[in-house]
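Hi U.,

Before I forget, here's the chain from the pilot set. I'm dumping it here mostly so it's searchable later in email.
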Amino acid sequence: MRPGFVLGIDFGGTKIALATATPDGRTLRRARLETRGREGRPRSCAAPSEPPAA
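Structure:
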């Protein structure tokens, strides 16, 4: 069975980027969360201050 979409997640030092796409590669939605990496690991791993934009 083939899924209806795929999810990509990029955990970086200053952001977490997310995207959903169709199995053939068409992007459905993207979001970006700032991690506050400059404030150190405890702050960068905490919940984001704002939800991602729709």
